[in-house]
């Protein structure tokens, strides 16, 4: 015996007034169930807390079936696809096993994986109320038949139709580019989905459209960050008045200080650490975001899953091997072979600042001249 049906849902998010309609097909029998839901957005993007949010369209396919010869075990699976409108569409799956402990208590464990994050495991304890009078522990025995008899169906065993309630994603319009947000599976922190100035999320570590701009350490967005900006040998007389649209280079490799500001100006870098924070005089990130500190960047990269350029790209940040811009010549170096990210941190060397450098063989935090042009990935402030 089996039951088939159609379901219709509407979702409404009160804060942003996002609206979505879903239509689904379902099939249920004693030892197996499946349903397919299609989600369609019918609300425009909304501006919420300086972020432009849009609801997601997409679909999911779910199944739930008894494990052969184990009537107290259910195998559960979900495949989902979300159209994010900006960046890569999200495609993933969830696989789990649900073990019945008593008629009213079960424990589920499984793993979720998609193209925007590393695989994560989960566990879930479910208690059905009211508990009832017969709460004996399950006899974890192997049955003589592979599956329960499906010729009869107890309507009380029918499961509620499930559908995904993830209705929205957030985007930020910043200097003509629309950024999405990604959440770290390690720290839970929120980051922009790509480097500042990048036209798209990376499709590979050598995707030039996702390299983005090359900022000199502590400088504002003044045109120098373009990979094709002109160079000058005239250093700035303050941290807020460098030559606009000019990438400041040293006279030669032996010259000191290796800084785009004149000697004695913010020698230890403290002013520029503050300047790159949200609301600072050289703030280059969207409102509510900052250039990451050393601890923030390390926790979600080299202390987590980034060990080389391949894992930098496969990480949730999709970091490209954008290389850097040479502080002596203004030329572009190591594009396609090195990931270079500046951070907002006081430094140990008077004319250098710390950056994360990742190659095909490893990754580390290291000092680099402040004249060097590097990538920026902004993190949302706590």
TrEMBL record:
**Domain Inverse autotransporter beta-domain spans what residues?**
3-165
Q: Name one Pfam family in it.
A: IAT_beta
Supply the InterPro entries for this chain. IAT_beta, IAT_beta_sf
Gene3D superfamilies given in the database record: Inverse autotransporter, beta-domain
Tell me what this protein is called. Answer: Cadherin domain-containing protein, partial
């Amino acid at each position: 015996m089996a039951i088939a049906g159609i379901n219709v849902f509407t979702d409404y998010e009160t804060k942003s007034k996002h609206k979505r309609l879903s239509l689904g097909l379902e099939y249920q029998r004693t030892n197996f169930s499946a349903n397919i839901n299609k989600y369609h957005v019918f609300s425009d993007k909304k501006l919420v807390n300086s972020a432009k949010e849009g609801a997601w369209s997409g679909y999911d396919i779910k199944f739930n079936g008894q494990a052969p010869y184990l009537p107290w075990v259910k195998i559960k699976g979900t495949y989902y696809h979300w159209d994010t409108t900006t960046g890569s569409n999200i495609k993933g799956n969830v696989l789990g096993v649900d073990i019945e402990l008593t008629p009213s208590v079960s424990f589920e464990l499984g793993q979720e994986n998609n193209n925007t994050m590393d695989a994560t495991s989960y566990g879930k304890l479910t208690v059905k109320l009211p508990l009832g009078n017969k709460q004996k522990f399950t006899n974890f025995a192997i049955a003589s038949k592979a599956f329960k008899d499906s010729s009869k169906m107890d309507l009380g065993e029918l499961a509620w139709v499930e559908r995904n309630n993830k209705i929205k994603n957030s985007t930020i319009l910043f200097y003509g580019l629309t950024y999405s947000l990604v959440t770290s599976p390690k720290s839970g922190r929120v980051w922009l989905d790509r480097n500042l100035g990048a036209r798209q999320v990376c499709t590979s570590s050598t995707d030039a459209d996702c390299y983005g701009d090359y900022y000199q350490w502590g400088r504002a967005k003044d045109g120098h960050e373009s990979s094709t900006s002109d160079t000058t040998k005239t250093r700035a007389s303050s941290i807020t008045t460098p030559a606009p649209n000019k990438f400041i280079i040293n006279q030669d490799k032996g010259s000191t200080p290796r800084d785009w500001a004149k000697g004695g100006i913010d020698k230890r870098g403290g002013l520029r650490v503050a300047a790159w924070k949200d609301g600072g005089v050289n703030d280059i990130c969207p409102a509510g975001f900052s250039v990451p500190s050393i601890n923030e960047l390390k926790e979600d990269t080299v202390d987590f899953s980034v060990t080389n350029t391949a894992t930098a790209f496969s990480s949730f940040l999709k970091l490209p091997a954008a290389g850097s811009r040479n502080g002596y010549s203004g030329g572009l170096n190591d594009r396609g072979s090195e990931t270079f990210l500046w951070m907002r941190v006081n430094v140990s060397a008077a004319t250098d600042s710390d950056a994360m450098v990742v190659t095909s063989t490893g990754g580390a935090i290291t000092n680099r001249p402040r004249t060097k042009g590097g990538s920026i990935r902004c993190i949302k402030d706590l």
